[in-house]
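Per reviewer request, we include the raw input and output of the structure prediction for the construct analysed in the revised manuscript.
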Amino acid sequence: MKGLFIIPLLFSSFSYGQSKFDSKILKQATALTCPVPDEASPVTVNATLVVEGDSLAVIVKCAILSGWHIYAFVPENLPYIQLEPILETPASLLPAGTWSKSPPSASASDPGVLVYTASAVLVQKFIRKDKTGGKVKAGLYFQCCDIKQCLPPDERAFELTF
């Protein structure tokens, strides 16, 4: 249930006159599912594209097993590995702003550290210079931990075609 409230918060900056494209992104982000995480794979990731006219958005979503977390922000003096989006795009796509990310929570055990629990959604918008298709590589580089252990850093990426 908690994850259902994250996606509307992601788009709170579009509060006045939300565009048709933003509505389409929100709908697609809400519908995007990840494989169910388990002890063998406590974080699962999925990605998709939304294309409309001269606009394109990359959506990356992860599901996090209860009791586990990934790092949204880590101060320089701590050894944890902060989440990094993976993104490779053709030259025909021009970024429109920076990544929009669902809001993280403060770590209960590490002051100054922000974490994602349950799920996270990241969106990067683009303007298409032309209508030709192409491929986008999108995903996440992250470290996941629970109260007893941190797993080695992991990378999950997808090749998406438009």
